[in-house]
Amino acid sequence: MNKKAIIVLLIIVLIILALGGYFILHSGESKNVETAKQNEEQAIILNIKTPVLQMNSYTDEEVKDTYTFLKKVANAFEKEYKDANVKVKVKQFEKEDENEEIIGCFDTEKATDILYEEYFNMSTYIHTGKVVSLDDMITEEIKNDIDDNYWEISKLNDKIYMMPFLGMQNTLCYNKDLFRQVGLEKYVTDEDIVQKWSLEDFEIILSTLQKKLPKNVYPMLMYGKNEMGDTHVITLLRSRGSTFFDENGRIKLNTPEGIKAVQWLMDCNKKGYFPANAENIEIDDCYNLFANGQLAIYINNAVLDASLSKTNINYGNVNFPSIDGKGFNTTFLNGFEVFDNENEEKLKVAKDFVKYVYENEKWLDYSSGAIPCSNSVATKFSEELKNKQKYIDNLDSGWNFTGNNPNWRNVRAVFYPNIQELLYGQKTAEEIAKQIEDTCNSAIEKGYENSKLHE
Fold it and tell me: Which of 15, 87, 337, 361 is deepest in the core (most CB within 10 A)?
């Protein structure tokens, strides 16, 4: 064989080897892709959903919202869970898309298996018959680590349907510099507490602010554009002694106390205590006014503290007004809820996921950025939580602002248009009080008519 023939033969051999390697390599890649695809097809897909919610944690600066927190838990759970091959999908949705993301996905592949949210929306879903009791996954250790008051808020008919994770408490807050500017120093304190002002104090404060503040700087928050922040307006409607709910969870505002509170809000609007055209603005607009020094009284909570601390506003906290002078706060919880999507294996995994959070110190510690429902976390982070102590000391001023009714989301949908009419000022206080009572109770009755608990 001549030299040229040998070279050609070597080239052919090299080409064959290269092609063989290529096919082997890509055959392996193809098998890996196919295996991954098969694994995902065989995996239990767990759908976890959460609305856009701020969240802070002393243990992880990356966490600024619940979505990031849940993604971290989901990644760890996938790796550590031994009872099944699990793929966890976490989805964050805008609050206005909630109905579509929860009820609109029932009986589809996108159905929610676990929801992390605020209780006042979550409680409504219990009445769909899809939300399961969690008593069977709550160990004595978990139960004893959470205050009984939190468990009570999480129950319906003595069964636990929601798992408390974070405590939230909304109070009013005020701009200390604006108060001093108009001569209201006596109402300002440098103590880190939630103050309590009488009804007489509120009137002196609001009237003084209105008279002495510059133009386009307003005494107090108010809004009616949508349902965001409606719980604060509801709490203001208790200021003259109204309980707002009767003993059966129906709205009871068409009373002397309720009418007085409606009249008070109407008078405040007429006197210029509220931002101009409050019926057309929302709570975020009021936040922007407060952050810009254009609003003297706003709301605050443990999460908002983090945002407000980045502004130049020097502020203090005070309860919503009440007839006894002790005031109210709107206390509510964030936590987990599990749905039954007619798949026993998936339901088991969903409960195990929630249990995994509560039995794992690392994940429980993420509740340290607000008011943790876990006593062990509160003790462990007692130094870091000193700035939350004012809220913890103020827990006894809270009230159940949903009345445990089965249709809270639709109550909210019909409540705020009534506040718009209140602010328009075209109807009497008696008419508005009756209208709120009638429209909200109609929504509540529909909720009871359609209520179905999981069996």
Answer: 337
pLDDT in tens, 8-27: 556 665 565 555 555 454 55
Both tokens of 94, joined, read: 């805008």
CA distance 135 to 403: 22
**What is the rounded distance in angstroms from the CA atom of residue 224 to the CA atom of residue 401?**
18
pLDDT tens-place string over residues 276-308? 999 999 999 999 999 999 999 999 987 788 788
Strand partners, 337: 115
Name the token pair of 190.
């440098």
**Two structure tokens written together for 423:** 């602010």
43 SS3 class: coil
Domain 44-168+332-389 top-level CATH class:
alpha beta
What three-state secondary structure class fits 4?
A: helix
Fold of 169-331+402-450: D-Maltodextrin-Binding Protein; domain 2 (3.40.190)
How far is the C-alpha of 237 from the C-alpha of 145, rounded, in Å? 35
> Pick from 86, 87, 127, 129: which is nearest to 107 by CA?
129
Topology agreement, domain 44-168+332-389 and domain 169-331+402-450: yes
Q: Please count the residues of the chain.
A: 455
**Tokens 């109609």 — which residue?**
442
Distance, CA of 33 to CA of 26 (rounded, Å): 10
The secondary structure of residue 320, as a DSSP letter, is B
Q: Domain segments of the chain: what residues?
A: 44-168+332-389, 169-331+402-450
C-alpha distances in Å from residue 265, one per residue of 151, 238, 302, 415, 421: 34, 11, 27, 15, 12
By the 8 A CB rule, do 246 and 252 touch?
yes
Q: How far is CA 227 from its chain centroid? A: 14
161: three-class secondary structure by DSSP? coil
Please choose, from the candidates 366, 411, 318, 329, the residue with its C-alpha nearest in 3D space to the C-alpha of residue 120. Answer: 411
Answer positive or negative: Cα dihedral of 166, 144, 86, 122: negative
pLDDT classification of 33: cutoffs 50, 70, 90: very low
pTM, entire model: 0.76
Q: What is the DSSP letter of 223?
A: -
- Torsion 315-232-306-218 (CA) sign: negative
Residue with tokens 């009418």: 259
Condensed to tens digits (0 to 9), the pLDDT of residues 167-220 reads 888 999 999 999 999 999 999 999 999 999 999 999 999 999 999 999 999 999
- Which residues of 215-320 form beta strands (DSSP E)? 218-220, 244-245, 251-252, 295-300, 315-318
